[in-house]
Amino acid sequence: MSAFAKTPSRMSVSEFLDWVPQDDCYKWQLVDGVPIAMAPANAVHAMLQVNLSSLIRIHLRATGRDCDVFVNPGVIPATMSAHNMRIPDIVVNCTKVEMGQVAPPNPVVLIEILSPSNSGQTWANVWAYTSIPTAKEILILRGDAMGGDILRRLPDGKWPDETSVVAGELVLESIGFRVAFPELYERTPLLHI
């Protein structure tokens, strides 16, 4: 019997954290009370995740920012918070994390790496992240070409209706980070496409 057959139909975040799936080959996230299996990242996706998280961490330490980078953390959107724990690819959190804490408490930057096979779920996560009060920027980095899209919270606290295209250079204003795409996509096959 697969892990999917024994998956409860609806659960809370606390039930999700206690739940042990029969098949541990997958990474799981909780979407509106339903555990959703996530396939392992492809090689380019994994390379981009490591490249970007490493570059951000180096930047944060060099600039003395009291922030940390997390890879594949659980985050809890404000919308339906009792039944959602989404898993972004990268998060920057700028408040102290306590022992036993299951999710970064105040994500400032959330990053998803978009693969053609999971586009719908990725965009659903992005819109859920806009409900996180501390979120300032949400980056959707392309995994099939150099570039991406970004959402930046407006000065009035609202989000724009549409993303802005990011090309040539990635800038994360909230943490003062910038990197040229060739450096970000270094050693990936996308660098020469």
How would you portray this structure in words?
The protein has 193 residues and is α+β, with helices and mostly antiparallel strands. It has one domain (42-192): tt1808, chain A (Alpha-Beta Complex). The chain is 21% helix and 25% strand. The chain has 4 helices and 10 strands. The strands form 3 sheets. The protein has a 6-stranded mixed β-sheet, with helices on both faces. It is globular, with a radius of gyration of 17 Å. It starts with 12 loop residues before the first helix and ends in a 9-residue tail after the last helix. 28% of the residues are buried. Mean pLDDT is 91; it is low at 1-6.
Average pLDDT taken over every residue: 91
Number of domains: 1
Named CATH architecture: Alpha-Beta Complex
Oligomeric state: single chain
Structural class: alpha+beta
If strands are numbered along the chain, what order do they take across the biggest sheet? 3-4-5-6-7-8
CATH class category: Alpha Beta
Shape: globular
CATH-defined fold name? tt1808, chain A
Q: If helices are DSSP runs of H or I spanning 4 or more residues, what is the number of helices?
A: 4
Write down the secondary-structure element order: HEEHEEEHEEEEEH
CATH superfamily: tt1808, chain A
Overall radius of gyration: 17 Å
How many individual β-strands?
10
Query: Which stretches of 5+ consecutive residues score pLDDT under 50?
Result: 1-6
Helix percent reads 10-25%
User: Ends: how far apart?
Assistant: 43 Å
Biggest pleated sheet? 6 strands, mixed
Q: Strand fraction band?
A: 15-25%
